[in-house]
Automatic annotation (TrEMBL):
One Pfam family cited in the UniProt record for this chain: OKR_DC_1_C
InterPro entries the UniProt entry points to: Orn_Lys_Arg_decarboxylase-I, Prn/Lys/Arg_de-COase_C, Prn/Lys/Arg_de-COase_C_sf
Gene3D superfamilies: 3.90.1150.150, Molybdopterin biosynthesis moea protein, domain 2 (3.90.105.10)
Cofactor(s) needed: pyridoxal 5'-phosphate
Protein name: Orn/Lys/Arg decarboxylase C-terminal domain-containing protein
Orn/Lys/Arg decarboxylase C-terminal domain: residues covered: 104-157
Keyword Membrane: no
Keywords: Pyridoxal phosphate
Amino acid sequence: MTVWDATGTLNGYALQRELERRGCFAELAAPRHALLAFGPASTDADAARLIAALGDIARQHRLPDRPLRGPAAPPLPFPAAARMSEPVAFGLTGSSQAVGSPIVRHVPLHAAEGLRAAAMVIPYPPGIPVLYPGERITAETAAYLQELAAQGAHFQGTPDGKLELIEVIDERA
């Protein structure tokens, strides 16, 4: 089940945290929604706990008093103006071949525009790489990653998991 706040008050990560405080654990969260999984072992009590948690969250954040700003359905996890990056070469034995075992340095994401990524950057969820080794970091990509980080996304392929720093190829070497 996908849940989201159509008032735009809570993003998906905040909604996940609020649900977890009330004993309901989302399978994953994204910038605008949280996903809950029900299976054969789920009970009526589980559903009742979720309904109570959602009601409590709505009351605590005064959601019924706020105008609807969000869509009637959760949006896709990627920006509408998604773009294709320039081609990046990949080797059969791993992406490090594509960039020839480069010298890597760590830079703040806001300073990485125009540089080439040295490692995949994968926000979770959805677990799909946004940057590949050797790919040039554009202003749009950096802004998208900064937005995800500000909302609470977790990242694989970054030195700290928070995307404060990003590994780039030192092309001066």
